[in-house]
Automatic annotation (TrEMBL):
<dbReference type="Pfam" id="PF02298">
    <property type="entry name" value="Cu_bind_like"/>
</dbReference>
<dbReference type="InterPro" id="IPR039391">
    <property type="entry name" value="Phytocyanin-like"/>
</dbReference>
<feature type="signal peptide">
    <location>
        <begin position="1"/>
        <end position="22"/>
    </location>
</feature>
<feature type="region of interest" description="Disordered">
    <location>
        <begin position="122"/>
        <end position="147"/>
    </location>
</feature>
<dbReference type="GO" id="GO:0009055">
    <property type="term" value="F:electron transfer activity"/>
</dbReference>
<dbReference type="GO" id="GO:0005886">
    <property type="term" value="C:plasma membrane"/>
</dbReference>
<dbReference type="InterPro" id="IPR008972">
    <property type="entry name" value="Cupredoxin"/>
</dbReference>
<feature type="domain" description="Phytocyanin">
    <location>
        <begin position="23"/>
        <end position="120"/>
    </location>
</feature>
<keyword id="KW-0732">Signal</keyword>
<keyword id="KW-0325">Glycoprotein</keyword>
<protein>
    <recommendedName>
        <fullName>Phytocyanin domain-containing protein</fullName>
    </recommendedName>
</protein>
<dbReference type="InterPro" id="IPR003245">
    <property type="entry name" value="Phytocyanin_dom"/>
</dbReference>
<dbReference type="GO" id="GO:0046872">
    <property type="term" value="F:metal ion binding"/>
</dbReference>
<keyword id="KW-0479">Metal-binding</keyword>
Length: 171
């Protein structure tokens, strides 16, 4: 009974840690979403992962955010797949490359365009990201536990907290 509730508490702690690892990126940093910043420079050197969020800081009415196709991004065509009219706007990233432009006339052409490539995250240690596990890999080493322990290793304080919970459950 006690161990079951402690296990649930442990699961809650672990899922909170996973949620806390998501990063919020403020588009254009202190400049925000406006005419002026070079958003392709802004994205360079950043790694975007599924679940991360983009915060577009702009005054409602002055700008907006349209998610568009690559060709509409390239040509600054305001053919929105998703529209965010109210600023500031928060967008949660899913896998793939996402293209955002400002739909106010002339703004995209003046540089208000942002392309973000989002990886699936959690690359296998020592493997290249996105590489599928080799089929028929050695049966004694399932991949799930190793990735779980890798996650715990990345958060030693969490591992200690989890260990305390487990001890509480046992004694
Ligand atoms: C923005 O920066 C990229 C490289 O980071 C550069 O290739 C591009 O020409 C710049 N765009 C403008 C409009 O300056
Ligand atoms: Cu604009």
């Amino acid at each position: 009974m006690a161990s079951r509730s402690s296990l649930i508490a442990l699961l809650v702690v672990v899922s909170c840690a996973a949620a806390a690892s998501a990063t919020q990126f403020t588009v254009g940093d202190s400049s925000g979403w406006t005419i002026g910043p070079n958003y392709s420079s802004w994205t360079s050197g950043k790694t975007f992962t599924v679940g991360d969020t983009l915060l577009f800081n702009f005054a409602t009415g002055a700008h907006d955010v349209l998610e568009v196709s690559k060709s509409d991004y390239d040509s600054c065509t305001a053919n929105a797949l998703n529209t965010f009219t109210n600023g500031p706007a928060t967008v949660t990233l899913t896998a793939g490359t996402h293209y955002y432009i400002c739909g106010i006339s002339g703004h995209c052409g003046a540089g208000m365009k942002l392309a973000v490539s989002v990886g699936s995250g959690a690359p296998a240690p020592g493997g290249s990201p996105g590489t599928a596990p080799a089929p028929g890999g050695s049966p004694g080493t399932p991949s799930a536990p190793s990735s779980a322990s890798a996650r715990l290793a990345a958060a030693p304080a969490l591992a200690v907290a989890a260990g305390v919970l487990v001890k509480l459950a046992l004694f």
